Amino acid sequence: MSGLVLKLNPKERVLVNGAVIENGDRRSRLSILTPNANILRLRDAIRPDEVNTPVRRVCYIAQLVLSGDADPVEAHHQLMRGIEQLSQALRDGDSRSILDAASAAVIDKDFYRALKSLRSLLPREERLLSSGPRLQ
User: Fold this and answer.
1) Which of 15, 54, 114, 129 makes an SS bond possible with 40, Cβ 3.0 to 4.6 Å?
2) How far is the C-alpha of 2 from the C-alpha of 36, rounded, in Å?
3) pTM score, two decimals?
4) What average pLDDT does the structure give for the chain?
5) Whole domain around residue 34: which residue ranges?
6) What is the average per-residue pLDDT within 94-113?
7) Calpha distance 115→30 (Å, rounded)
């Protein structure tokens, strides 16, 4: 993750290699120079009770690796399986390229980049689920 720049709002929290860091009273920028550091913005974190859709489930697995709560080897298998399942449902070119990027990131063990790619599918998934048929 060499070269990652985090822009933090006042009092914003971020998880870096298992340590919660809270920003001060002003906006700031942090440059993460250590490769393969596990970074998770807590404002972007998906809570366990919010893991209720296919994309959220796959994002949550990547998030668990970044928080240190999942074994990266086991998560690698689960992520690849989840990405493959998502690719069966999300067949448009844009979604495919996002899933390809997420898959490449998982292969590179770059779980932050994988999560970032997968999170970009959340608005698309929300639109698809809200426009689907309703059972009454």
Assistant:
1) 15
2) 8
3) 0.85
4) 91
5) 4-43
6) 96
7) 19
What is the pLDDT, as a whole number, of residue 132? Answer: 63
For residues 16 and 82, state if they share a domain.
no
Burial class (CB in 10 A: 0-12, 13-18, 19+), 79: buried
**pLDDT-based confidence at 134, cuts 50/70/90?**
low
Beta-carbon contacts of 87 under 8 Å, excluding residues fewer than 6 positions away, are 95, 96, 99
DSSP state of 19: E
Asked if 102 and 85 touch (Cβ cutoff 8 Å), the reply is no
Please tell me whether residues 81 and 29 are part of one structural domain: no
Same domain (yes/no): 24, 68: no
Q: Which residues contact 104 (CB under 8 A, 6 or more apart)?
A: none
Matching residue, tokens 């063990």: 109
- The total of structural domains in the chain comes to 2
What is the average pLDDT across 36-63?
93
